[in-house]
Design goal:
The model has no long low-confidence stretch (mean pLDDT 84). The chain has helices at residues 32-53, 58-80, 153-160, and strands spanning 2-3, 10-11, 94-98, 101-111, 117-128, 133-141. It is elongated, with a radius of gyration of 33 Å. By secondary structure, it is of the alpha+beta class. The strands form 2 sheets. A 4-stranded antiparallel beta sheet has the order 3-4-5-6, with helices on both faces. Strands 1-2 form a two-stranded antiparallel sheet. It folds into 2 domains: 2-53, no CATH class; 58-160, no CATH class.
Length: 161
């Protein structure tokens, strides 16, 4: 038994409130630990995302350009396929600049006219204008293009001469 701090009556040690005056005897535990931790992580994650998205460093700008040219080349190649909805592009692609043109080298796996999945290697040269991009050369082959096999002279002669 213990005494109620408010009315001084004898109260059981297991009682949550005093039976005489109703004064609370046990303090309620706060359950804010998990919720506040989650909220703090959410705020921190938002801040990190904001900082990453607003990175204006030359490296970040170069990476943004590489991604944009990769997507542009994939759209162009997809339009050349017999079954564009089946196209699967890898995450990695060679993207580099040469003589003012952006070159994208990669491959696509898609169905051919008979329904078989075929891997086709491609190279696309993109020229950046004032407000638009232009595909100036492209090549598709069943063999890897680039260092292992040179480009055909007709398509890429302006870039590799």
């Amino acid at each position: 038994m213990k005494k109620c701090p408010s009315c001084k009556h004898a109260v059981s040690t297991k009682a949550e409130t005093c039976p005489s005056c109703g004064h609370p005897l046990k303090k309620k535990k706060r359950k804010s630990g998990c919720a506040s931790t989650l909220l703090m992580l959410l705020i921190l994650g938002g801040f990190v995302f904001y900082v990453m998205m607003n990175d204006d460093s030359p490296e970040a700008q170069h990476l943004d350009k590489q991604i944009d040219y990769k997507i542009t080349s994939q759209r162009y190649i997809r339009d050349q396929l017999r079954a564009p909805s089946t196209a699967k592009f890898p995450l990695n692609a060679q993207v580099y600049e040469r003589k003012g043109f952006w070159i994208v080298e990669s491959y696509v796996e898609a169905q051919n006219g008979f329904g078989a999945i075929i891997r086709t290697y491609y190279a696309v040269a993109i020229e950046q204008g004032e407000n638009s991009r232009h595909i100036v050369a492209s090549e598709m082959s069943e063999y890897p293009i680039g260092l292992a096999r040179p480009y055909s002279k007709s398509n890429f002669s302006r870039i590799f001469s």
